[in-house]
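hey can u run this one w/ zinc ion bound, need the structure tokens asap thx
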Amino acid sequence: MTTTIVDSFTFCRLGEQASGETPVAQFARLQKDLADSSGQLRWRFTGGRHPQDLPQLTMAVEGEVQLVCQRCLKPLAHPIASETVLVLAHDDAEADEIEARLDDDSIDVIVGSVAQDFLQLVEDEALLSLPLSPRHAVCPEGAPSVEGGKAESPFAVLKQLKS
Ligand SMILES: [Zn+2]
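ok here u go:
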């Protein structure tokens, strides 16, 4: 099994690559928003250098998770396919400074670490990709509708309050 806790600065400096596949069931925070823990997330990290001479990590996350439809409360398959460019800073102050200097919304500045947990980054990315209020385009037959003049289900309201 590949280790997923790495020195992210060295990883970028050496231009290393790492990839793997992790069961959704292994992500505790992610699971809270899901209908079940089926499926896998495939991920890939590529170390490199940002043109402004900063350590840069490219992260790709792919897979499918089962969300809960907010209209009928049945499972709803949600594909995840994202690629993110992360620039590493040594601490929060430097992260703020780099963020302001780059002024680039397509890049996220994070605090790097000699023991960076790649799977935590993958989980963060998956969480960010989830819609706030997932709904089927067309709910499955026979599912109770909680829309269209009827009161929203207490469960859906509770979900929204929590998010
Ligand atoms: Zn639905």
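Residues 69, 71-72, 74, 135-136, 139, 143 surround zinc ion (CB under 6 Å). anyway lmk if its weird
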